[in-house]
Fold this protein.
Amino acid sequence: MDFGSVAIMAPGALGVSFFYHLTQQLQNNDGKVFFVGLDNSRSINALMKSGFQISDGKAVHQLPPDELIFPTLDAVWDMGKRPEIILACPNPDQLLQVVSTVVALIERIWAQEGSEGVPKIPIVVLTSNGIYFQRVRQMFVEKLEESILLGRLPDLWPDHMPYVVGHLLRGVTMQTGIRHGSGAATIYHPGPSGHSALVGGGEAVRQRCCELLTQRGGWFDNSAVASPTRLEFEKAIVNLMGNLLGLLYAFQDDGSFKRLTIGEILVPEHEGDVRELVQRVFEVGRAVRVFTPQEKDEDVFNHIYTRAQSVRLHVPSSLQAIEIQINEGCLQAKFPPTETWLIDPLIRYARSSGLVEAAEYFEGLRDKLIAKMEKSILYSVGKAQR
């Protein structure tokens, strides 16, 4: 294992932001932090030829691909680069692929080195936005069990399974970043250093991960007290408040789009909408025991609302992404993937808990946003024809 090394899987706006800060704003690009693709796709191959362009407000930095971008985790392993940590930050709908890739790596390590290779299994930190850690961890265990059944791994119980599963962490992050363009012309814009809370997994694993990422310039905390799902729910409120409600306010009645900051979203006339959102998420969270009976939604509202006020000038990432799509003429009337991985679990939890009104509330937000997107597309078409 290459101690102190970090593989970012896969390249994208969030991953590039992590890279920027873990290399101390590109000042310590020592080869210990690099990118790994999820598959040998056209996009990763294009990046392997062109490298990255990162704009940080001071300059546009061209990063050559050599020793920086690799097509797959297998390719990295073949070259002898064995990362201690994998920061997984793909689109949320690629998380199952991440799990399958990691299990395949564990199979390879065991086939080559047997039980002596177990300490070389990397720490995997899932950083994509969404409410998913419990389900993904369950998938991880099921994939391992399947490998045992098929003879690709020995029975890992009771000696090795807790160790292996303890290497899967959740990183609930406030890190932001956006990108403009596509292919070789893509320019990445890292956001300011954002706080990431590490939860789940083993205590010693979390502590080692936190120490390494902090030493490299990241802002990571070992949140040993909180449960992963608790932090996911709290982050969901922040995301939905800024991104989902923000999008609903940004799309105007005539179909045009207005760029809004957090401060412009959280104006007094929107407080009723924000409170209802917090109440509904809190209601579902209490039903699944994320929030305790002693807690009040008012306290959660005040805590998160105060945090949001500290970034009043920030334009939420989903608004930035949608604005780019509108300007490039590629907006589709589809619910954004990040918001999908927040709303869908909330709807599922609400319905399984008998909270019909809460489920219908979240479904209503989703339908309203899609309708506004459809109207915006028509507006853009009409504008182009004038």
